[in-house]
Write a structure and sequence with these properties.
By secondary structure, this protein is α+β, with helices and mostly antiparallel strands. Helices cover 46% and strands 16% of the residues. It has 12 helices and 11 strands. The strands form 4 sheets. A 4-stranded antiparallel beta sheet has the order 1-4-3-2, with helices on one face. It has a 3-stranded antiparallel beta sheet with strand order 9-11-10. A two-stranded antiparallel ribbon has the order 5-6. Strand 3 and strand 4 form a beta hairpin. Helix 2 packs antiparallel against helix 8 and helix 5 packs across helix 8. The N terminus and C terminus are likely disordered.
Length: 327
């Protein structure tokens, strides 16, 4: 469990809350390693809610079980959200793999359908216009979400590399084949350059990409609307070794505890959604950024953030960590 900095620790101890920020470990009392065990324990006070009931979650950490700071229902909802993210990302990857196999499809010509002025980057309006050229009409809210995810440098533009990331498969073989295709270099490019079947696959891929962001946003809003759910607790429920980072193994262990045995490829795709700097681990800041609603600001909750997750939010500095009240 993440240890609070001195400032927060003093703040908590002054109100009798010091034990909230300590991960509790108990000896396992069962000989069945395959069965996930939940049981209610003592009621404790939390600064983010009046009371909560902790539960014991069996873990593959040797002979130990760890307390999950989430209620059983809240943790189950978190797992449902993660499973849905796996499903939507799987649909996107299948569509991108199929599209990449079309010999008449290449990324440069496809980008030129959107970048009609040859600027090397496109605005939201140009992205929307290009989608309409492909007979796909995205909603403005979904368009905003796609831009928030893929506009890495936050300049309100999608460069060619950022645009290509949306449509490039994660499978290395198919990605390399797609990148190796040369553009046709037509002076004037129209959708007619692609076959009817390729245009259908383009629309399917666009549909999956935009629907995935909309679905993930709804899942974030469901979690945020739960009065006793906090991002700090969710992070610590997954970070069972209290390292301050979430690994692939910890994500996989949480899902398997609920009977979801995802292949390693799906776990990798899920990690890719959270792991913004691609270092193979998910920090608290990365986790908070992905799991927080990106559009709806009508949620009031007091969350524990690290400094890197709080740059753009109203906050009170408490010794290296910040208590954020989202509005």
């Amino acid at each position: 469990f993440l240890q609070a900095e001195d400032g927060i620790r003093d703040f908590c101890l002054s109100r009798g809350l010091g034990d909230v920020y300590k991960r509790q470990v108990v000896e396992k009392r069962t000989s069945s390693p395959s069965r996930r065990i939940f049981k209610e324990t003592t009621t404790k006070y939390s600064p983010s809610r009046a009371t909560y009931v902790d539960h014991v979650r069996e873990s593959n950490l040797g002979d130990r079980r760890v307390y999950s700071p989430l209620r059983i229902g809240d943790e189950s909802q978190l797992v449902v959200a993660l499973k849905n993210q796996i499903d939507v990302d799987k649909n996107i990857e299948n569509a991108k793999n199929e599209l990449s196999q079309r010999n008449d499809f290449n990324l440069m010509d496809f980008f030129r359908l959107f970048d009609v002025k040859d600027k090397g980057a496109i605005t939201q309006a140009e992205f929307q216009a290009g989608c309409r050229t492909c007979n796909f009409v995205p909603t403005q809210s979904a368009l905003d979400l796609v831009f928030q995810r893929f506009d890495r440098n936050k300049d309100q533009l999608l460069s060619y590399s950022e645009f290509a990331e949306i449509f490039t498969p994660k499978n290395r073989e198919w990605a390399n084949r797609l990148r190796s295709r040369r553009p046709l270099n037509y002076e004037v490019l129209t959708p007619d350059v692609f076959s009817t079947e390729t245009m259908r696959l383009i629309r399917d891929t666009l549909t999956y990409v935009f629907e995935a962001e909309a679905i993930c946003e709804r899942l974030r809003e469901v979690l945020a609307s739960k009065p006793e759910f906090t991002i700090g607790d969710a992070f610590d429920a997954i970070d069972t070794n209290a390292s301050g980072f979430i690994s692939r193994e910890e994500l996989k262990r949480l899902l398997e505890g609920y009977g979801i045995f995802a292949p390693q490829r799906d776990i990798d795709h899920l990690m890719d959604r959270f792991d913004e700097n691609k270092d193979g681990l998910v920090s608290f800041g990365e986790f908070a950024k992905e799991i927080s609603p990106k559009q709806n600001r009508n949620y009031y909750c007091c969350l524990l953030y690290t400094s890197d997750a709080a740059d753009d939010l109203l906050c009170v500095d408490l010794g290296g960590r910040r208590i954020i009240k989202k509005k």
